[in-house]
Design a protein that fits this description.
Elements: H1 2-40, H2 49-69, H3 88-113, H4 117-120, H5 122-131, H6 136-167, H7 169-182, H8 187-207, H9 210-229, H10 243-269
Helix pairs in contact: 1-2, 1-6, 2-6, 3-8, 3-9, 3-10, 6-7, 6-9, 7-8, 8-9, 8-10
């Protein structure tokens, strides 16, 4: 009797793992197919990395929506998506996400800049060069809007809820962040994505609305683009007087905000 139970349990675990990996694999497969098609088409071969990523993200997002989202929301624990009603809690969540993720993104970039991680990672350097290869408008559209929408749909909706239903709230927050960081395939982006992913997961669990996570992710990316492509934050670069105290303040605010959401979530579960 014991021996017949173990294979069933193993099969169930394997199915859960497959259901977790499959959406991620499908998304990146669609992105790769789009890239290959663009290289094969004479009129599209000159498209830069940002535009290629934009089209890939858009197609991947559509596939994810059709396969995993459409018609998949029901019951009192409805998983809200783009077209759900707007209420006061959503507006509050979006406001908090803009402040939290915007500040956290700046703080993390500043802390990474204090190390030599960027210089050590050739993969990151090539990715950074490719991502700043297009016009500023295209970068905002793709890296600031389309990519965050697609990635949050994947990691903070599909992956998050699968882990939540399988292993609980903590696993959903940490696991979705870990996969989000791991998939970036370099140390710098991996650390950055994992830590931001933890905050996005907390927001997702607290507000139960992926739109909050999407706007938060957008805020971090858009602010990073403005820092990299304009002089608006020239007063807040390494070597300037406000750099270290400003970074310490942002880190402190981020930690306090994260602690606030953890405490509120614990109270909800009592």
């Amino acid at each position: 009797m014991g021996s017949s139970k173990k294979p069933g349990q193993a099969q169930k675990i394997n199915m859960q793992v497959w259901n977790l990996i499959y959406p991620v694999f499908l998304y990146f497969a669609v992105c790769q197919i789009v890239n290959l098609l663009l290289f094969a088409l004479p009129f599209a071969v000159s498209a830069d990395a940002v535009k290629r990523q934009g089209l890939g993200s858009f197609c991947g997002m559509i596939v994810l929506y059709l396969c995993f989202v459409k018609g998949n929301s029901s019951g009192s624990e409805r998983k809200k998506i783009i077209f759900a009603p707007i209420d006061k809690k959503l507006v509050k969540g979006i406001f908090c996400a803009v402040l939290l993720l915007g500040g956290a993104g700046v703080a993390l970039n500043n802390m990474i800049a204090l190390t030599n991680l960027k210089q050590m990672s050739e993969t990151y350097q090539s990715v950074e060069q490719a991502f700043y290869s297009s016009g500023f408008g295209w970068e905002i559209l793709v890296l600031g809007m389309l990519t965050p929408m697609a990635e949050e749909l994947l990691y903070r909706y599909i992956v998050f809820y699968h882990l939540r239903n399988w292993m609980g709230r903590a696993a959903a927050v940490i696991g979705s962040a870990f996969i989000f960081g791991l998939i970036h395939m370099n140390v710098v982006q991996g650390i950055y994505a994992f830590l931001l992913g933890l905050l996005l997961g907390l927001l997702m669990e607290y507000y139960q609305d992926v739109r909050v996570a999407i706007i938060g992710h957008m805020s971090a990316n858009v602010l990073a683009l403005f820092r990299g492509e304009t002089d608006l934050f020239s007063w807040f670069v390494l070597g300037e007087p406000l750099y270290v105290p400003g970074t310490v303040l942002l880190v402190g605010c981020t930690l306090l905000a994260g602690l606030y959401y953890i405490i509120r979530l614990k109270k909800q579960s009592l």
